[in-house]
Amino acid sequence: MTRPTPETLANRATPATVAAAAGASAVAPISPVPATGAGSLVRSLEALGVEVAFGIPGGAILPAYDPLYDSKVRHILVRHEQGAGHAATGYAQATGKVGVCIATSGPGATNLVTPIADAYMDSVPIVAITGQVARPAIGTDAFQEADIQGITLPITKHNFLIQSADEIPQVIAEAFHLAATGRPGPVLVDIPKDVLQAQTTFSWPPTLELPGYRPTLHPHGKQIREAARLIAAAKRPVLYVGGGVLKAGATDGLRKLAEVTGIPVVTTLMALGAFPDSHPQHLGMPGMHGTVPAVYALQKADLLVTLGARFDDRVTGKLDSFAPDAKVVHADIDPAEIGKNRHADVPIVGDARHVIDELIAAVSGTATGAAAYEPWWAQLNDLRQRYPLGYDEPTDGTLAPQYVIERIGELVGPDAVYVAGVGQHQMWASQFIRYEKPGTWLNSGGAGTMGYAVPAAMGAKVGLPDTPVWGIDGDGCFQMTNQELATCALEGIPVKIAVINNGNLGMVRQWQTLFYEGRYSNTELGTHKHRIPDFVKLAEALGCVGLRCESKADVDATIKAAMEINDRPVVIDFTVGKDAMVWPMVAAGTSNDEIMFARDVRPTFDEDDL
Fold first, then answer.
1. What's the pLDDT band for 605 if we cut at 50, 70, 90?
2. Which of 179, 274, 279, 428 could form a disulfide with 187 if both were Cys (CB 3.0 to 4.6 A apart)?
3. Is 143 annotated in the active site?
């Protein structure tokens, strides 16, 4: 018999670790008591400390809603299952706990596919519970039957089809443990209706059986020493920081590592807030719409110390021309990420918090701070001076969307949570709001899901009721999921949604302008010309306060008016110009060498051209 290693023991699933993963305290043991499968499900959620679940009942899941009626788990009745999934994601991203969403079989379950895929791409811990047709009907094309387990197999960290009511506590506990530990992610639990109706007994805690699931948290010492050796030898290093640093709670360590070594820092779209925007070592966001200094730093580095990031195409541009002279230290808790897109000279498998702490210890005594990289910093600081983020005022007198978002950030401040949709407004929100603290920026980075903002903001506000939560949405995104504002109004969830209304699918229009000779095929939405829908009237119909702002002079007053309303959701229709573009830009499929600072304006690099 093999003796368990300390790593195995540290990761062994226990009721206490499962409860901790769910954000709850371990409950006292419960002796077996009679229950239905549905009752066992709800009692399992209660034992795990679940505070809230977002969902919609239907025939197959209906047995679970009966015991839920008397449960201390708060159920929020959403208007569409996609809203339930994104709300669970927003809740999880804002609180660090596992988010829960519930749907019935067939179309109810398939409506969860998009938010599940979204959570998978962004490594967000959620548990999706779906009803399934009764076991004898599975495979018969029964009414509202869908093989949701098979459908979600590639987009979940794990999924279950429960076959017996006796399994429910164990499977639910395992689902939470899997969702929250290692690399977080979505887990689906599909439960046939007859299993929910069957008689069983409920007891707690269950015994977890997850053979082979042992996430590696602590990095190998030899790899840490090799990484420290490369850091000591580098002349142009960069700390390339991804969302894994936020998920590991490693932001304090990151700051210490940066300051001890003096190495420049770039934070990906998913890592905004991991390192203060105002810190002098922060170069900003790299990638397609990143800052010129951040893109240049990655491209010209001789060493990338990659922490919880995955070399995705939006950061690397054309991969075979990315950072051609850089050696790579790649640290990630998921070994499958290392070497997937870019060869790692020093692969490190481990939790970012432990990796960073051990790197600090390894470089202490040898690091000399920013002085060690004086020529490198001189280049980067020169670029920061010559190519700051900015925008031109529209010449046609329309309102600049960048100005609106900048003023929201300045007036609302760094303590709020900002939740963006996907498109131009998402990029401007990443550029013109200053993120000083972890957990203040939520968005759909990997899947790029339009319609994310309103329900995710709802989930974040439920998790952090005392924190202002602002959604920055586009008029296209907003029309996909705004029905969840009715949920917010009825449930007392006073989010604020700033609709950056340019009358178009803005990012697509920008690409049509640049790459399709201005042939605007099917991107005008009518929210300007026809004012259909009228967002103010729509907001009022959904139980919200609706405001409109069309001029620069009214921006501050409108934002302040929204800030003073806390008993209902608020929607602001910021009617902005349609031709604003997001810059800088690395066009899709091109090299970071081809970054454009503005339209027809390419940065110049005095001594060492890209």
1. confident
2. 179
3. yes
* 311 classed as catalytic: no
Which one is catalytic: 7, 143, 163, 515? 143
DSSP string of 229-281, one letter each residue: HHHHH-SSEEEEE-HHHHHTT-HHHHHHHHHHHT--EEE-GGGTTSS-TTSTT
Cα–Cα distance, 240 to 265 (Å, whole number): 6
Q: Which of 46, 51, 144, 170 is catalytic?
A: 144
Q: Which of 193, 247, 327, 578 is catalytic?
A: 193
Up-side HSE of residue 250: CA atoms within 13 Å toward CB? Answer: 29
Let me know if 607 is a catalytic residue: no
Residue 26 has pLDDT above 80, yes or no: no
Element of type H or E holding 342? none
Q: Residue 275 catalytic?
A: no
Ramachandran bin of 439, using left for φ above 0, alpha for ψ from -120 to 50, beta for the remaining angles: left
Interval 136-155 mean pLDDT: 97
Confidence label for 364 from pLDDT (cuts 50, 70 and 90): confident
Alpha-carbon gap, residue 315 to 540, rounded angstroms = 40
- Determine which one of 270, 285, 480, 507 is catalytic: 507
608 pLDDT exceeds 70?
A: no
Residue 605: active-site member: no
* Cα gap 23→30, rounded to integer Å: 20
Report the distance separating Cα 431 and Cα 468, nearest Å.
Answer: 20
CB 137 within 8 A of CB 89: no
- φ/ψ of residue 550, rounded to 5: -125, 0
Distance CA 214, CA 13 (A): 9
